[in-house]
Amino acid sequence: xxxxxxxxxxxxxxxxAATVAAAAGQLPPxxxxxxxxxGNPPEVVAKGGYSGFFPDSxxxxxxxxxxxxxxxxxxxxxxxxTKDNDGFCIADINLGNATNIEELDPRGRKxxxxxxxxxxxxxxxxxxxxxxxxxxxxxxNIFTRMAVFDGEPITGPFDIKEDxxxxxxxxxxxxxxxxxxNQHNVVPERYxxxxxxxxxxxxxxxxxxxxxxxxxxLGNAQTKIIFVFLDEMxxxxxxxxxxxxxxxxxATIKLFASGIVVPKEYIWPISxxxxxxxxxxxxxxxHRLGLTVYASGFANDNLLSYNYxxxxxxxxxxxxxxxxxxxxxxxxxxxxxASEAIGCLNPDKNAPREIEALIISHNGASGDYPGSTDLAYxxxxxxxxxxxxxxxxxxxxxxxxxxxxxxxxxxxTAAILYMDLMTNYPEIQAADGVFSFDLAWxxxxxxxxxxxxxxxxxxxRNPANKNAGKLVTLAEFLEIAKTRVVSGVLIDIESAxxxxxxxxxxVGAVETALRNAALGNxxxxxxxxxxxxxxxxxxxxxxxxxLYINATMGGVPEQVxxxxxxxxxxxxxxxxxxxxxxxxxxxxxxxxxxALHAAHISVYVGILKNEFQxxxxxxxxxxxxxxxxxxxxxVDGVVTDFPATASMFSRSSCTKNxxxxxxxxxxxxxxxxxxxxxxxxxxxxxxxxxPPLPAVAANxxxxxxxxxxxxxxxxxxxxxxxxxxxxxxxxxxxxxxxxAIVTLFT
Length: 746
Fold this sequence. Notes:
Number of domains: 2
Largest sheet: 9 strands, mixed
CATH topology of the largest domain: TIM Barrel
Oligomer: single chain
């Protein structure tokens, strides 16, 4: 009886403590409920190991998949065979694409008919196992990826049954062409049942006959049998039926398999314009029948749908965390990104922030819409930017408006409408251009904004938004900030001395616009590369002055940091001021952040872009690893073309110990010891301090709304004959012409 009373008291005490803790927010959140078949988190399957970085199916690829992936990452081996029936892992039957076999046996090229497809190359079934394992080495089979890790030996399933710590791994063996091998007296079934010494957790194949034959021979083994769908028009060898037709009768698959692998486009089709289409019901139908579904084809350096804004993690989330279903696993060449999507990223825009560093837009959400337009700013706010930015330019008649730079040729259709005004101002830039201060505001209003690509070709940004939105005045920008209730604004002021000599007072225009806007509690950041501009705002204690330092630097001496502090509360620096790279790998960190923090100066870093070509190799084509690295360096804010990516990362548990997955920051030299490179020079005082601003000259152009000024958009002015336009040089004219052609036909 006494024991019962004591137990009751303890139970009541526990319930009370749990209630108090829950009310205080101290208890961890309940486990996430997944819409997989079992309710468990989706599996991460490393296809060929970490084949997006190392050669496919190399030991380094498999070990790195384990080290960088979520616990329980499955190792996928695409199984092929030697002439003496030994199995090895390789991306493709043709060894010529992924090994050095051609160098070893230049006369060994052969041609085989594989289910009606004629393949010319080198094949494992023509060589004994000893030759393959002792001599053949792997190389990166996708030639747009780096080749610095080429040269590892061929890997067999027996090599990856344990990791380097002798712990058992989770192994998936895929038998790609069983019927073909049997026709050449090689028997994959015999290898699996008699030679492998222990069955893997998963056996898969795109051949129904093989799976039907091996299933009853597995006995009480817990091996999962998975049927692999290929492209819809491909013919399944056993039934001679297109895979697209088989997909319509999943009930027959359930008779011999526990799950299916389908190309990801089977689930979320993508249009020819790279736009996401409505999902199919493949996952729901498979789950209704009790089949697990694994989606294949994921790689960070693929050409993603524009819906994902070049953020590969968002593609995974589309498959595992949507309101309709979740696939049961993903096959990926970059398993760490799949791991963070499943293990720590939080797509809930209302989730609390885990990282407090400011998210500052770069011309709004300029990765998705033309920069500095109403749509770019609205999306930046919707995507979670703390601060939206306006780089202030001036029209000839004194209207301040937002645009990345005074040359409008790449950010608008100026190359088409005002080619005759192309000229050169060495104080602004080396190249010829069409400049805002040579145009009246009404003429600028006649322009269409233009989405600026970070990279050309297939990595171009969404052409559907090429000319979307409209340019906004500084006053309109501030009104957007007020009505959309964004936390703050950043006003960037460049070229103030040059504009003053032309009679344009950009600093005064900003002061007037901010005074008229009455932003209230919203924070204001004033940015400039000119310390004299920042000095104009030193009497505004509520404003944060940000010095833009456009210099590659190896660090900041203490005395220079002290000089910066006299003029600014924060700095905006480029990424190469923080991380020194060699051969596109991280070589070292600078002391920039540490030195500036010691002087009580905040550090903002940019410009972040999601496109994988913008990332050093250590970031594994994943913008979240760059964010994790900058967080580990304690930067105070990031400036980005894609605020949505930074916002989602800031609301996620990816940097917290105890999370299901932690996104590891870069450690220079850990993945690859790049060639030594000299550090850039330290920042100097001469690169910081500027002379006083000149007086503003008289401007004879009537301001907007003054006598003779029009508020309507002016029609394009008549083109002048280029032979009589003295300001155009031939090279500049050709450049403008080419830009106009590109603008019209892209």
